[in-house]
Design goal:
Blueprint: E1 9-10, E2 15-17, E3 67-76, E4 82-89, E5 97-98, E6 101-104, H1 121-132, H2 136-149, E7 154-159, E8 171-172, E9 183-184, H3 185-188, E10 190-194, E11 210-219, E12 235-239, H4 243-249, E13 256-262, E14 265-266, E15 275-276, E16 279-280, H5 281-286, E17 298-302, E18 309-311, E19 320-322, H6 323-329, E20 334-338, H7 344-360, H8 366-379, H9 397-401, H10 404-411, E21 412-416, E22 421-424, H11 429-432
Parallel strand pairs: 3-7, 7-10, 11-12, 11-13, 11-22, 13-17, 17-20
Antiparallel strand pairs: 1-6, 2-3, 3-4, 4-5, 4-6, 8-9, 14-15, 15-16, 18-19, 20-21
Helix pairs in contact: 7-8, 8-10
Length: 433
């Protein structure tokens, strides 16, 4: 049997699915035509109506200047395989992407594969680069956007799949044809994530949030040192127990600019497998989180797999659910979460660097800080990449460790408005001493 081609395929008989797909209505029973009613003599008949000229309305044409949206749509092909197709808009109708081709789900690219029993870091890095070479239409579209908008480009990746595609690692080539540099998307362009938030009806194109106030933190015992990242800011920390932390989330006047959780999390094929610290997804979903009302609080989940979603079809929903979706639906102004398992030591270092960038300049948008954070990691990429095995055919553990911080930096995803900012309250001098 011939191998499946790696690139796009015609949409053909693919069946679209996902939160953005409207449900099909059953065919109605035919009705008997009503009898024509006569007009009473005392009723004045209206003048002949004047038809209005139809004007097409494209909601994507209303995107702010410099904003672009890449929509990732889920489907199954006629053989039952999971596929997706892409559409892209920028507010400029001449600069759009409308792919009628489907692409197979690239299961080997997910950064959740980066674990002791998973794939070597350099193999994942090379695999994403190879896959990117088959995404020519997307790469060209993004390069055209970069040429048009320059540093003002803000790309929203609206992904309604649970495919865990590391879009921020898309390798951009051919930039010379457009007068821009080649490189890795998430280190060159301000990128944010989004998914359909059904109940809230929110989009990342509303007003940006200004998240200001103190830090409310929960820290598992093994991640207690994460609290030292916030030692210069007003901070209410809860250590080893989630109960008091969750009770504070129910306070409507809490005034937290940042809700931070440093803990482990689990992921699986359904909601029953999702756990954040010691609390399940369903338990979190039941909780009152009035403290998040008003979209003035950024949530940061330094927890493995917290940015991943599950398709909730087992519970009768055509919807994606996950921890990032939950906090956004509860009212968070934005959410930082991770798409895989980040090593504790590296995660602590990376969070300190990321928070340092955000707090050094309160006017710096969260998404921009994350872009600069990734760019700094890519600048440390060894050239050439280490081989997996040495000449003695032994696994080169040291060489692979050099790549981990780069991949970890791309695991941190931000969901929210591209211009949302964070302004933490500084502790009084006497409180620090």
């Amino acid at each position: 049997m011939p191998a499946e081609p790696p690139g796009p395929r015609p949409l053909g008989g693919a069946v679209p699915l996902g939160p953005g797909t409207p449900a099909r209505r059953p065919a109605p029973e035919p009705l008997t035509a009503p009898r024509t009613a006569g007009v009473p003599e005392h009723v004045v008949e209206p003048y002949e109506p004047i038809p209005l000229t139809a004007t097409p309305v494209d909601p994507n044409a209303q995107l702010p200047h410099g904003f672009a949206k890449l929509a990732v749509n889920r489907a199954y092909d006629d053989t039952g395989q999971e596929v997706f197709w892409l559409t892209g808009h920028s507010g400029d109708l001449e600069l759009s992407l409308d792919s009628e081709d489907t692409r197979l789900r690239p299961t080997g690219l997910a950064l959740s594969n980066l674990r002791p029993d998973g794939f070597p870091p350099t193999e994942i890095f090379r695999a994403v680069a190879e896959w990117s070479g088959h995404q020519g239409d997307v790469v060209r579209w993004i390069n055209e956007l970069r040429a048009r908008f320059g540093p003002d480009l803000h790309l929203v990746i609206w992904d309604d799949t649970d495919y865990d595609i590391p879009w921020e690692m898309l390798r951009l080539t051919g930039g010379r044809d457009h007068g821009v540099d080649d490189g890795i998307l998430g280190a060159l362009v301000t990128v944010v994530r989004w998914t359909t938030i059904r109940e809230a009806g929110r989009t990342p194109f509303n007003e940006p949030a200004v998240c200001s106030g103190h830090v409310l933190g929960y820290y598992a015992e093994e991640m207690r040192r994460d609290a030292t990242v916030f030692e210069n800011f007003e901070h209410r920390g809860h250590f080893g127990t989630t109960r008091t932390f969750l009770t504070e989330l129910a306070r409507p006047s809490l005034g937290a600019g940042l809700v931070y959780m440093g803990c482990h999390a689990t992921h699986g094929p359904n909601l029953y497998k999702l756990k954040l610290g010691t609390v399940t997804w369903n338990e979190l979903n039941d909780l009152d989180m009035s403290a998040l009302d008003g979209r003035r609080t950024l949530v940061c989940l330094n927890a493995c797999h917290s940015a991943r979603f599950v398709n909730n079809r087992p519970l009768g929903e055509n919807a994606l659910r996950g921890f990032a979706e939950l906090f956004l639906r509860k009212g968070a102004g934005g959410c930082i979460a991770t798409s895989g398992k980040v090593g504790d030591d590296v995660a602590h270092t990376l969070i300190r660097e990321l928070v340092g960038r955000l707090c050094a300049d309160p006017e710096l948008p969260v998404a921009r800080a994350l872009r600069d954070f990734r760019a700094a990691a890519v600048a440390r990429l060894p050239d050439p990449l280490p081989y997996v095995y040495g000449d003695d055919d032994r696994f080169d553990a040291e060489g692979q460790r050099q790549i981990l911080p780069i991949l970890y930096s791309f695991m941190f995803l931000y969901f929210g408005h591209p211009l949302t900012t964070l302004r933490l309250s500084v502790r009084a001098q006497e409180a620090r001493t």
